[in-house]
């Protein structure tokens, strides 16, 4: 799938030194930004009353005054209209730089300008801005939209699912969530946690297929110091990390048999024994397992333990595939258009009749995730206000579901990129990336990061733990 064209930010440069200004503009132009330039404070303020750049880069010493007054002027603008700010200071004037940061500037650079550093700073500030924007869009949207926690949908099947989640959340035994790829198993697990009285305590998700089998045991149960080569220090396992909270064992169908036996014991006894340690540790963790596989068949084949299966299945939740929730399909598609249009800053009303017919006809083997990807791509390619068939991937046009595509893109290493390419990042991902940005900003100082984020240090640790 080709990447959507990324939106090009606009930048206002305020610099009276003509040769420096020309140099900077050249660099920025090569990056494809939309540019405006002025040489005085007065012109800059005039420009800001006419346009809304994403970023203002300003020298602090200007012919008709000090750049700080521009910073202050910008900070008085309404938040949604306020550009980010990078100030350029003379070499050695650290105090001024600090003052500018305190007044609200996002970064500062000193003369003589190091161009690599300069571009890095511009990209970082703009990425930060984009993430803040996406977060606010999500907050806004989640206020308006119908659903349950982060699960959207009003079909009978979904309302039934929400009722089930409410009931199961109040109980304690293990839960087994069945559902095809992309149906929202992880969202259901999170909703279960949020609805339960474990809310506020850790929610950890682990992909059982993603961990080499020889590491699984210590990953789950921890290990004592010196338990095996490479284990210098003792380490807590996921069960202890999730103490008091919920542990999601995703893709449980991939769990090797010997470990199934150990997990079953942990579930039955409510305690775990770290590798290389003699005594057991009590744990209070609710286990939720999820799979897209037919576990009963795996039991029949002998690759899944029957006793483990029955223990997990204390509460079973089945998420129906998207194609069986016809009345959700259209609504979800429209909601995703609104989300992506807002994130990408576009005015798109929805689908034309022909495009909607194609969507309705397509079976979406990758379920909600595939729908989300299809819509994000369509929004990026759409140059009018309605999505048309030509904006949809060809598999929808000839109705040939691609069973490989879109189903498993979530472990894509690209995901660490700040602006997700193919799909809308989830709120948790955004939160994680934002926290990481803030941490980078303060050189990993967690106390300062927590203060900047306006959260307690313990909350920060919890957020970091969830990675
Ligand atoms: N009902 C829904 N409302 C809104 N978004 C949804 C819904 N269901 C799924 N999604 C979105 O679809 C994507 C896939 O969801 P999730 O990761 O929970 O699926 P999954 O069943 O765990 O998939 P897999 O089997 O591939 O792990 C996510 O981006 C999620 O936010
Ligand atoms: Mg999943």
Structure description:
Strand 8 and strand 9 form a beta hairpin. The relative contact order is 0.09. This protein has 19 helices and 20 strands. Helix 6 crosses helix 7 and helix 13 crosses helix 15. The chain has a 5-stranded parallel β-sheet with strand order 2-1-3-6-7, with helices on both faces. It has a 5-stranded parallel β-sheet with strand order 11-14-17-10-18. The longest helix is centred in the first third of the chain and has 30 residues. Among the domains are: 132 residues, Rossmann fold; 168 residues, 3-Layer(aba) Sandwich (Rossmann fold), CATH 3.40.50. Magnesium ion binds next to helix 7.
Oligomerization? single chain
Query: How would you name the CATH homologous superfamily of the domain at 153-320?
Result: P-loop containing nucleotide triphosphate hydrolases
Shape: globular
Name the hetero compounds present.
adenosine-5'-triphosphate, magnesium ion
Spatial order of the strands in the main sheet?
2-1-3-6-7
Mean pLDDT: 86
- CATH architecture label name of the domain at 153-320: 3-Layer(aba) Sandwich
Portion in beta strands: 15-25%
The beta-strand count equals 20
The end-to-end span amounts to: 27 Å
For the biggest sheet, the summary is: 5 strands, parallel
Kindly provide the radius of gyration, computed on alpha-carbon positions and rounded to a whole number of angstroms.
26 Å
> Could you name the CATH topology of the domain at 153-320?
Rossmann fold
* Relative helix content: 40-55%
The stretches of 5 or more residues where confidence is low (pLDDT under 50) are 1-6, 405-423
Secondary-structure-based class equals alpha/beta
CATH class of the domain at 153-320: Alpha Beta
Q: With helices defined by DSSP (H or I, 4 residues minimum), what is the helix count?
A: 19
